[in-house]
Structures are given as structure tokens and as C-alpha cells.
Write a structure and sequence with these properties.
205 residues, alpha/beta, seven-stranded mixed sheet, 6 helices, binds S-adenosylmethionine
Length: 205
């Protein structure tokens, strides 16, 4: 199967994806979500450590969504699934208010060229939607090896007093290391190449 390397999230057919589902965990089970999950390696690690919770990846490359769901159906874990949707426009359809325990934004696409910056997902709009969908006390974890993106995320989150985000490391401070045992594919690649990773953890008050 051919999997595209990059997808422009502003392409017209991706701004109006049909059948974006409501993502919910069964009553009594917590929901954790990776936005831009790709192969869902991070969520699969999390799911193996916590079989009681539900782990959902949101991904804009449909072929990857199908591959993750087929692999999990064949060999588990059974508490992971991937959903085809565009986080830049579909958060309202995907998540009810206060329904998610944790969001992970692991290594969002950098879109280096300045004329492509508008394709970047990080910004106040996404952070407001994440704040709305997080349960009280819920967490947003962001990690990236691109310092400019880490700063954009921090500026958006520190500036959003109304969304009630509190920086777990102290205002305008990065985390020293990941608080999770799970690792995404890009995170492992950075580790093996010795690339520095910038990490942020915010809690919804
Ligand atoms: C650089 S990859 C990182 C993948 C994985 N999180 C990791 O850390 O290895 C970014 C992922 O986000 C997905 N993505 C980009 N824009 C998106 C959007 N608007 N909605 C959903 N997924 C998106 C891409 O298709 C890609 O799989």
C-alpha cells in the first residue's frame, strides 16, 4: 500500500470529511487521544500499559488509519483505534465537552516553507478546542524537535487564560523529560539520532 508522506490539511476535500464520528469511551473508561497519530506507536505503548482506558488516534492520512485499525484488529491491543479526521477543523464533531482525559500532540508536521506555515496545526484555535474537550484536571502533552513549533504551542497555551491551562513545569517552562513510558515513531528516531526534543505539559484547571 502506498502511504503519502505529507497531506495538506487545507485541501478542500479534507476540510469537509464525511462521516467524522463522535469519539467516546464506554461509561467508566477514560479516553486518551493522540492528534496526528500516524502509525499510533505511542498509543499502542500506552494501551499495553493501561488496558482499562481507551486510546484513539486522529489521523488525516486515510491509508494509515486503515493500516492501524487492521493491525490492531489482527493482533491487538483491542483498546486502540484510529479515526480519519482533520484536527484543524473537526474537533467540534469529534469530541464532546470535557470528555477526554489526555491529548497528545507528538511531533506535528513542521511545514518549513513560510508559504506553507498556514498548514501548521498548532495555534490558539486548536488549543481552545482541546481545552473545551478536556475533562477538568485533564492533560495536554506536546512534544516536537522544532523549537519554533514548541514556542508557538507555549505562546498559545500561556496566552489562553480563559481555557484554564496550567503549565505543569511552571509558566513558560519546558519539561526536562517525558512523563510517559510510551514513545512515538518520531520520538524514537530523535532519540537514536541525538536530536533534542522540546516537551510541554499543561493541565486544565
Ligand atoms: C510528523 S508526523 C508525527 C506522527 C507521530 N505523532 C509521531 O510522533 O511519530 C505528523 C502526523 O500528523 C498527521 N496530521 C497532519 N495534519 C493533520 C491534521 N490536520 N489532522 C490530523 N492529522 C494530521 C500527519 O499525517 C502525520 O501522520
Amino acid at each position: 500500500m502506498r502511504i503519502r508522506q505529507h497531506v495538506n490539511p487545507l485541501k478542500s476535500d479534507l476540510l469537509d470529511i464525511a462521516d467524522v464520528p463522535r469519539v467516546e469511551a464506554p461509561v467508566g473508561r477514560a479516553l486518551e487521544v493522540e492528534l496526528g497519530a500516524a502509525e499510533a506507536h505511542f498509543l499502542i505503548d500506552r494501551a499495553r500499559q493501561d488496558t482499562a482506558s481507551v486510546f484513539v488516534g486522529i489521523e488525516i492520512r486515510r491509508e494509515l488509519v486503515e493500516a492501524v485499525n487492521a493491525a490492531c484488529a489482527a493482533a491487538g491491543p483491542t483498546n486502540v483505534r484510529s479515526v480519519f479526521a482533520n484536527m484543524s477543523v473537526d474537533m467540534g464533531r469529534l469530541f464532546a465537552d470535557g470528555s477526554v482525559r489526555r491529548f497528545f500532540l507528538n511531533f506535528p508536521d513542521p511545514w518549513f516553507k513560510s508559504r506553507q506555515h498556514k498548514r501548521r496545526v498548532i495555534g490558539p484555535g486548536l488549543m481552545v478546542e482541546i481545552g473545551r474537550a478536556l475533562a477538568p484536571g485533564g492533560e495536554l502533552y506536546v512534544q516536537t524537535d522544532i523549537f519554533a513549533l514548541a514556542l508557538d504551542a507555549m505562546a498559545a497555551l500561556e496566552g489562553l487564560a480563559e481555557a484554564g491551562f496550567v503549565n505543569a513545569a511552571g509558566a513558560w517552562t519546558f519539561l526536562r523529560e517525558s512523563p510517559y513510558d510510551a514513545k512515538s515513531r518520531r520520538e524514537r528516531q530523535c532519540e537514536s539520532e541525538g536530536v533534542r526534543v522540546w516537551r510541554l505539559l499543561y493541565r486544565r484547571g
